[in-house]
Amino acid sequence: MNTNDYIVIKAIEDGVNVIGLTRGTDTRFHHSEKLDKGEVMIAQFTDHTSAIKVRGKATIVTSYGEVESDNKK
Fold this sequence. Notes:
Elements: E1 6-11, E2 16-22, E3 29-35, E4 40-44, E5 49-55, E6 58-62, E7 65-69
Antiparallel strand pairs: 1-4, 1-6, 2-3, 2-5, 6-7
């Protein structure tokens, strides 16, 4: 398993939440950050982080491509 993948998250609006979820039998939140418009976060999947949830309008860049998250309507 490659746990060295990085993703880049750039907030397009204020208040974007980035939430790290744990690896293992019980998936839990283990870290969260709030980004304001224009702020960039570089995150890495690790032995402890199996998923990253982005809530709010942001651009997410991975080795697989780029995607834009959206607001709840």
